[in-house]
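Re: Re: ligand-bound prediction request (bumping)

Still looking for help on this. To restate: I need the protein modeled with flavin mononucleotide bound, output as structure tokens. Inputs repeated here so nobody has to scroll up.
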Amino acid sequence: MIKYPNKTIELLLERASCRAFTNKKIPKDVLEYILKTGIHAATGGNLQPYSIIKIEKQATKRRIAKLAGQGFIADAPVNLLFCIDWRRLERWAKLEMAPFTAASSFRHFWISFQDTIITAQSICTAADAMSLGSVYIGTVIEFFLILKRMLKLPRGVMPVVLLCIGYPKKKTTPHSKLGIDAIVHNETYQELSDKELLKAFNQKYAGIKIDITPKRLKMIEQVCREVAGEKFAKQCIERIKKQGYISRAQMYFGLHYIAHKMPLQNEKYLRTFENFGFNWFKKYKPYRVKD
Ligand SMILES: Cc1cc2nc3c(=O)[nH]c(=O)nc-3n(C[C@H](O)[C@H](O)[C@H](O)COP(=O)(O)O)c2cc1C
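Reply:
Sorry for the wait, this slipped through. Here it is.
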């Protein structure tokens, strides 16, 4: 029986992140084709408000790997840092005597963020098509300002995500995902029933149960308390003890993406945006000619 209708669908459905790379270099022409696919992707108004920093120097990759606490980053022959880039367009506008306010516009920012990700994903797929493997690194957000200095990013150029690419050490196995029934809504949004919702997640994470340890329990209890108070914390711990394991949802939001700490970082990120020259969250003061 044919599992897939064609090679492209097979490639997309068999993809998985790769975190173990051989030391084989990526030939120049292969890398060029891959980069070209990203640059050819759809982009709002065909403006292309992004730049890609290609990092191949071992010392730089090692430093990023250390900052991110993810050693395999240094093993990938190429790291690509995808950045929103309004600087090139601002300079162009200036040279052409065109008015320009993109850094103060949330709409421009929003579209450029999408453009940057779409470009990255084309490159990711093209890398797969050329027998390479890749993995996104989102935790670079924790050290954007260090990257700014390290990679000499000018005002208006802000990192979004890093993509490590290289030849995989071994074949990667696709991860289980939520199915079409949970993700796709026909015509209007249709809420799943609690039963359907739990079924969908249980299928995705079938058999994955996280062991209870005193340290984990204490942490989840504290996070629950911070988010929703003592009563909820007690109920959560009782639930964990009754079920005999920590569920995937409890792990994600209680241990990994620590629920009460996530919103506390907002202020820091807003300051980061400002540092990169984006101030769309501030009131815009239009230029007025004084009479
Ligand atoms: C925006 C984004 C950020 C990510 N950040 C990291 C990361 O910092 N480290 C990592 O090992 N994987 C990272 N990943 C990879 C995800 O962990 C991975 O896509 C997910 O577990 C699903 O696995 P799959 O890609 O094999 O389907 C990231 C993926 C995305 C899309």
